[in-house]
Amino acid sequence: MPTPAPPRIDLGGRLAALKRARSRIVMITAYDYPAARVVDDAGVDVVLVGDSAATTVLGYQSTREVSLEEMLMLTRAVRRGLTRVPMVGDLPYGSYESSDARAVESASAFVRAGCDAVKLEGAGPTTDRVRSIVRAGIAVVGHVGLAPQQVTTPDGYRARGRDASGAAAIVADAMALENAGCVAIVVEAVPDPVARAIVERVTVPVIGIGAGASTDGQVLVLHDMLGLIAAPRAKFVKVFGDLANAMRDAVSRFADEVRSGEYPGAEHGYPMSDAEQSAFARLLEARR
């Protein structure tokens, strides 16, 4: 098996330093070069190339449908847009569950595409995959609580850990993932007391999404926070900008100006001197 290229940035060390400094970690999920340029300039701490790209930008019905090849294409695009921010890649459904060797092979492909770490969903058998990837020298971010890759029905996208036994199991999963070598853990769609219990019991940074304010940081999908995804949205999504309407208005103005003849104007074209126009006309005449 080929050796993966070394990571560009020590993600574990950087996140641990932020946690020690009590600086809240800002993670954004992005999927392409223009978005990567924006979030890099905006000063986020981590970029996640999430498998949520399946439903957000590729038009699939669930995250289970996106392929490894599609995720790697998006990852390479994001990498080209980043200059200082570490990048984590989501291992998509079907790319790591079957064996340790398969998991390491997939993770290595993400590192070669420019990732500083990979993320896997769930615990249980996944902890063995995490150990194998870590042994291969690749940093891993865990993911507990709601695991979208494991959702098979529309009503499966609901909060986890709202009963005592379920909450305790999520905390145990987080602890197991830390023991397996994860450098950070994402916790999704759980009550705040559950996330707080995880933070109190693990030493690695905990990044929440729909997990209250007790975590060491927060992650949101760029398209969600910019209002590009039509409602209904998850309860934890806060819209920080209304780009959907702005984009719609801009396209409508373009269409109106094309139809009215207002666009393009003379200022949008390239000039040609009178002499060259005359020469051009003579050439055309000669070729009749």
Describe the structure.
This protein is α/β, with parallel strands linked by helices. It has two domains: 11-241, Phosphoenolpyruvate-binding domains (TIM Barrel); 246-286, no CATH class. It is 43% helix and 12% strand. It is built from eleven helices and eight strands. The protein has an eight-stranded parallel β-barrel with strand order 1-2-3-4-5-6-7-8, surrounded by seven helices. Strand 1 (25-29), helix 2 (33-42) and strand 2 form a beta-alpha-beta unit. Helix 5 packs across helix 6. The N and C termini lie far apart (65 Å). The mean pLDDT is 93.
CATH topology category name of the largest domain: TIM Barrel
* SS summary, helix count: 11
Gross geometry: elongated
Radius of gyration: 24 Å
**Second-tier CATH architecture of the largest domain:** Alpha-Beta Barrel
Biggest sheet descriptor: 8 strands, parallel, barrel
Q: Helix fraction?
A: 40-55%
CATH uppermost class of the largest domain: Alpha Beta
Provide mean pLDDT, rounded: 93
